Amino acid sequence: LKDKLPWMLHLGDEVQFTRKPVLGEPGLISTPNEELLDHLQPGHRILINDGRLQLDVFKRVDDDTVLTVVT
Length: 71
Hints:
- The chain has 1 helix and 5 strands.
- By secondary structure, it is mainly beta.
- Strands 2-1-5-4-3 form a 5-stranded mixed β-sheet, with no helix packed on it.
- Strand 3 (45-48) and strand 4 form a beta hairpin.
- The chain is globular, with a radius of gyration of 12 Å.
């Protein structure tokens, strides 16, 4: 993360996953896992932290994926 501070995700928050090599910041996460981003489509759900956090793919924007926190 840019400021090395954690941030909390809340129900309804949008998070953008990008393949661009940028420092993360609230709402923006960079991932080198291009295969993951290639396969995510609107309606897919991903689980993070052993399923404690669930995000639904909302839309694709260019090479990025926008997700919404659902739990």
